[in-house]
What we know:
Strand content: 15-25%
Largest sheet: 4 strands, antiparallel
Mean pLDDT: 80
Number of helices: 5
Shape: globular
Structural class: alpha+beta
Oligomer: single chain
Amino acid sequence: MRQLLALLAFTAIATGPASVAVAATVPPPWEPDVMLDAPVRIHPMKARAKALMMTVAKGPAGTQPQRYALLSCSPPSRGTHPAPTKACPMLEKVGGDPAKLQPDPTVACPMLFEPVTVTASGMWNDVYVRFERTYGNACQLRAMTGAIFAF
């Protein structure tokens, strides 16, 4: 604030009738701020945000979730997901979009209808991701998403 007032006072003096003489002979009334006068260098981001908040609910869409986990993949050691080292590479292959995951062909699931609804929302490579899907049962969920919703 003091620097702003000093700048305004200097401007008022410099714009007076003798502005040419004053502006040429009077130094600015403040010392240069080394931190503000340094050039700002912007570097490209080396690591982009990769974090998803995930929920699992037993029942159809709209059911209150029973489990929650934060999957953080930059770095993978943060968050509450129990297996980020398995889940993060799976999401990396599909660009962070769980809808693009392919089912595991070696898993055979029973034809029982016990719906499980999962959601994932957050940022992946600085792009917002929102995913919600209801699977027929927990086996189908594991076959489609592997370790991603295994918490």
